[in-house]
Amino acid sequence: MNNLKLFDLLPNGVMIFKNKKIEYINQHLLNVLNINFLDKNSATQILLNTLKVENKEVLFTFFTTRDYFVHNSKIVQIAHTKHGDYDIFSFMMIYPSLISAEFNKKDIKDTPKINIDKKVAKFFNINDIKRITVLTFYKGLPLKNFGDIIEINDEFIKISVDSKHRISLLEKDDILLISNTKKGTSILHGHVVKNRDNIFTISKFVLAEDDMHLREGIRIKTFDDMQVRIDRQEFRVYDISEKGISIFIDDAVEEALLKKKASMNILLDDEVLPIDAKYLKTIYDKDGKVLKIVFTIFPTNESDSKIHDYINKKQNEIIREIHRYLV
User: Fold this and answer.
1) Would you give the DSSP letter of residue 35?
2) pLDDT one-digit tens code per residue, 116-151
3) How much is the pTM?
């Protein structure tokens, strides 16, 4: 890569790392962030502050373990590719019109509850899909990169994936494959049935919900260090974002009680954080048993700051954990 300044001609943001160290930031990205007048070190520091990332070393892991970040209330999608010692990150703003677009899935018509492995194989072969976006989650953090298809048959798809996806298997074997064709985008939910040398064998496919791969904010699993109090009862929190919370419940009686509630208190680090809430949906397990209930939340200014700090702290802990796993 002899002339990195050529990336300044692109209408999207580009950041290039060499051996995990910042090598180049193109002009478009500097303009979007309003830091085009600064030297490289100052511009990098502003970027770290904007993303709330601790240092330059963590920045590389931040980009490799996320599929987007939020800037000025806009979602910036991250695409990642490698070229020798270089890691090239491309950034594109996603506008609401793109997020809400209706995708054409007439080639795969089965319902989400029906296994569609044979139709998936046919779909991939007809469209000659060789490379696909792979998305997994670890402790609520999305891990996204490209994967190369090695083998397809009626029983499974074998894909070469980025090594970071292996850490997701410590939690569960779920995986999303996102394919783009001339007819639109299809999102397939499968399960990793075998993993060897970054080669995932995936089967048990179903058609995923529209836009389930897009999130307005990071959802962090709380691992029992947060509860909510409603009418003097305390409930365990499954995960939380800056706009939503999901709460473990035991039965339909608790569901009926909580669905009517418009406020609750979050118990975090010996603090009580009052929030307004609006029932969104109930999640059931595969046997139809009530599992958890999900609310949209509207924190006060003080509660919002505390929740933001908690999510940011947990996010950085997870990023460091992923980095240690990959080393």
Assistant:
1) -
2) 678 888 888 888 888 888 988 888 788 888 899 999
3) 0.58
